[in-house]
């Protein structure tokens, strides 16, 4: 009788939850391959993969012992968020708990809490939501196609509610449900960046760097593109970062394409956009690649310095300013090939967000870069330092200059 009473008491207090509802810019830069944004999302939407026992449940819901009652009742789901932001005024992408320097992730995490997507406890420990960014952009660097992965509560109108707590220059533009094992960093096959700069950067060194009337001639543009094309393929870029020697395998990087687009005029000055796509980039690699081409184009360095920089000799490579650098797109080709057409998952190509991405760049990224360049002369000031560089080989060995055993792609946790 006592056993029966205990059984009835247990059943009366047990609940089963099956789910809970919860403008003159180059045209080619507007064309990104993207996907559809879901409308209203629900916590009981279709599972990515069938649950397979206790281990699968723990992977999905986290360590039950460390969860609050609310988290146990309403399991979070793994998603990929598409972000766009202007990096001006921020100390990069990655959040450092307790740091007085504000980052993009500081703003994002605060918005996620206020929107009701994550509990307050995740603010100080982002591992609880398995947060991962695809690329760690540096101070002042912007992004039009950053992707982060994390577990959150799929509330209704989630994108609108998150954006309501973000400043206008940071936006969540898309969301996709992804597999439970998805990792934005590890599943990324390649990254595409752009670099907006005044074309006077490619002018001969005798040209006044403050001449807003300068216009790049067609032959000069062809020469610049011949130089950029030399980067394509696999090379040792040990001279384009720090703390890596010429025989370090991690210094070998594959660049798929690099070129400078057609010039265009903004605020009376001529600008152009350099685009580059590669599997991954080391810290400062892109800015140094652009810096060395500028040095050659202006006549401060010989043409052969690019090929020499891939050898075992140490070559001092100048680093162009960070202002014009933009993370344009991250690519998940292998993930899409495996899951994009299986009928259960959505491909991560973000094609249908293309108009929103272009509009954000034209309103918040490009005008900020142009205005800041005109006001602060970051490129002109940097060009004035080029005569102080020695582009002759100075021996062999590791580049000095900082603790940067890091990657833009975060394969070693760094940034450009």
Automatic annotation (TrEMBL):
The active site is at 138 (nucleophile). GO terms for biological process: mRNA processing; mRNA pseudouridine synthesis; tRNA pseudouridine synthesis. It comes from the Eukaryota. Gene3D superfamilies: Pseudouridine synthase I, catalytic domain, C-terminal subdomain, Pseudouridine synthase I, catalytic domain, N-terminal subdomain. GO terms for molecular function: RNA binding; tRNA pseudouridine(38-40) synthase activity. Residues 404-416 have a biased composition (Acidic residues). One of its GO terms (cellular component) is nucleus. This is Pseudouridylate synthase 1 homolog. The lineage of its organism: Eukaryota, Metazoa, Chordata, Craniata, Vertebrata.
């Amino acid at each position: 009788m006592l056993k029966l009473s205990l059984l009835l008491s247990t059943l009366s207090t047990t609940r089963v939850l099956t789910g809970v509802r919860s403008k003159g810019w180059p045209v080619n830069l507007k064309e990104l391959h993207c996907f559809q944004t879901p409308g209203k999302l629900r916590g009981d939407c279709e599972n990515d993969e069938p649950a397979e026992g206790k281990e699968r449940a723990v992977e999905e819901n986290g360590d039950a012992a460390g969860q609050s009652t609310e988290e146990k009742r309403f399991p979070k789901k793994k998603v990929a968020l598409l972000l766009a932001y202007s990096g001006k005024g921020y100390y990069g992408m990655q959040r450092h708990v307790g740091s007085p320097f504000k980052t993009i992730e500081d703003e994002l995490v605060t918005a996620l809490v206020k929107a009701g997507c994550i509990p307050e406890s995740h603010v100080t420990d982002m591992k609880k939501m398995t947060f991962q960014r695809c690329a760690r952009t540096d101070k002042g660097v912007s992004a039009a196609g950053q992707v982060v992965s994390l577990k959150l509560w799929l509330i209704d109108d989630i994108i609108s509610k998150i954006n309501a707590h973000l400043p206008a220059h940071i936006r969540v533009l898309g969301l996709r449900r992804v597999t439970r094992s998805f990792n934005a960093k590890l599943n990324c096959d390649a990254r595409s960046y752009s670099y907006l700069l005044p074309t006077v950067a490619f002018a001969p060194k005798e040209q006044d760097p403050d001449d807003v009337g300068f216009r790049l001639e067609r032959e000069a543009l062809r020469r610049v593109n011949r130089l950029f094309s030399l980067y394509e393929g696999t090379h040792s870029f040990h001279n384009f970062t720090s703390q890596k020697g010429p025989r370090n395998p991690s210094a070998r990087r594959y660049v798929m394409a690099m070129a400078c687009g057609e010039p265009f005029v903004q605020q009376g000055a001529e600008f152009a956009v350099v685009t580059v796509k590669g599997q991954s980039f080391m810290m400062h690699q892109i800015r140094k690649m652009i810096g060395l081409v500028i040095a050659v184009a202006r006549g401060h360095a010989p043409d052969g310095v690019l090929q020499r920089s891939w050898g075992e000799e140490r070559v001092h490579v100048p680093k162009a300013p960070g202002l014009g650098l933009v993370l344009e797109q991250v690519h998940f080709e292998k993930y899409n090939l495996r899951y994009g057409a299986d009928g259960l998952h959505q491909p991560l190509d973000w094609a249908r967000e293309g108009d929103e991405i272009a509009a954000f760049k034209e309103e918040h990224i490009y005008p900020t870069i142009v205005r800041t360049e005109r006001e602060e002369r970051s490129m002109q000031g940097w060009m004035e330092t080029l005569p102080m560089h020695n582009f002759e080989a100075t021996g062999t060995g590791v580049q000095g200059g900082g603790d940067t055993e890091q990657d833009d792609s975060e394969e070693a946790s760094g940034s450009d």
